[in-house]
Amino acid sequence: TFTVFLVSFAGMITKSNHASLVKIYAYDGVLFQKGVVCPTCNIEKPARSKHCSFCSMCVHRFDHHCVWVNNCIGAFNAKYFFLYLFTLSAMAASIAIITAAFLIQVVLLSNVMRGSYIDDQGQEHAVEILFLIQ
Questions:
Q1: What mean pLDDT do residues 106-119 have?
Q2: pLDDT by residue (tens digit) across 17-55?
Q3: What does the H/E/C string look like for the chain?
Q4: Which of 32, 63, 64, 116 is the most exposed place for a label (fewest CB within 10 A)?
C-alpha cells in the first residue's frame, strides 16, 4: 500500500484537466467563490481545491501535504492514504500483541512472580504484577 500511495496521483490541477475538475463540486458562494484565480498557478480554482506551497500546485479536494511520502493528499489518493494509515495501525497493533505475548512468556518461564524483593526499610515483599510492569 505504501508504494501505491507513494506513486498515486493526488489531483494536481492543470490546464488540461481543469474543465473536468470544475464540474465535480459546485461553488457554495461562501467558502468557495467562482472566479477566484490562484495567484501562483494562474488557474481558476475549482471548488474545494487549494494551493500546496510545498508542491507549488493547486490540488483538487486538497487535504494536506504528507511529509512522509512528500506528496499531497487530495481527491484521487485519499483512499490510498487511509489504507496506508490502516495498515500502519494494524502493524503497530500486531507488534504490540506479539511483544506482550513474548513478555508474558518470559515472566512465566522465569518464575519471577515467585520472587521477592527488599525495600528501603529492609522488609521483604513478594513480587506483584505492578512491580514488574514498572
A1: 84
A2: 999 999 999 999 898 999 999 999 999 999 999 999 999
A3: CHHHHHHCCCCECCCCCHHHHHCCCCCCCCCCCCCCECCCCCCECCCCEEEECCCCEEEECCCEEECCCCEEECCCCHHHHHHHHHHHHHHHHHHHHHHHHHHHHHHHHHCHHHCEEECCCCCEEECCHHHHHC
A4: 116
**Residue for grid cell 477566484:** 36
Cβ contacts of residue 25 below 8 Å, gap of 6+?
32, 46, 47, 48, 61
What's the whole-model pTM score?
0.73
Q: Which of 55, 58, 66, 72 is catalytic?
A: 66
Q: Which residues contact 20 (CB under 8 A, 6 or more apart)?
A: none
Residue 127 burial (C-beta neighbours within 10 Å; 0-12, 13-18, 19+) = middle
Half-sphere exposure in the Cβ direction for 95 (13 Å, CA)? 6
